[in-house]
Amino acid sequence: MTAADATNTPTAGRTPGTLADPLAEALRIIALADERGLSVRLMGGLAFHAQAPTWTRRVDREGRDIDLATRSDDRKALSDLLIGEGYTADRQYNALYGHKQLYFVDESRSRPVDVLVDRLDMCHAFVFRDRLAVSRPTLPLAELLLTKLQIVKINHKDLLDALILLASHPLAAASDGAGEGPDAGAAINVGRITGLTSADWGWYRTVTGNLGRLRGYVASELQPDELDTGGPLRFDLAAQLEALGQAIESAPKSTKWRLRARVGERMTWYEEPEEVGHGRG
Fold it and tell me: Which residue, of 37, 199, 254, 268, has the greatest Cβ tally within 10 A?
């Protein structure tokens, strides 16, 4: 390596400037992206802590990955930002899948960073590209909730993430984004959720199934410390779940939805998320 190469290497001669707390680090990266005019938002488990900052549950937070969402327009600039901040790109993975997902790692802390581009594709899919401006620092609340409600094999942590969001934020019945905004007190846009569950029976089946799981968990399994915020919860969970379920059921369904509903569970209605390894080579 020449002297010029060393000078142009982002990590050369630097002490890693990343923060130990992954939430604080994620917010630092988002602030840097804001300064550059990039649309970057937090998703994943840390986003629920960002939207419920008094939630005392911090189990294994220091070991959490950072999950970000961005637009394809900002993909290259965000990659440059992360590399400039000392992150190592998985070059092979990013070359193959960078049109939809990027992968980096903070080597000094063994902490991965996943970046989804334009959309989420897991058990179900939705596009968030044009929704990133609605709120900060996370995905809009409806999309954030949907990242959990779309999981067919939902686990305990996912249940708690969904519940803390519903306990901390009101539901907005309007479909035009009323109540949304950049502050943490914004509402969950129910119209965004029913737009998916009324057009796609698969979405409907998974979301309503998970709402049933959430109701059962709240009724018989939820422990007092699991949603501890240092005071009373803002919203009654049973009422929130009932209101969201009623909104989904009462929303008019598309012709495509009705045709697929006739087939029901005789045909698989979801995708199995694909696991891809990372080499960082």
Answer: 199
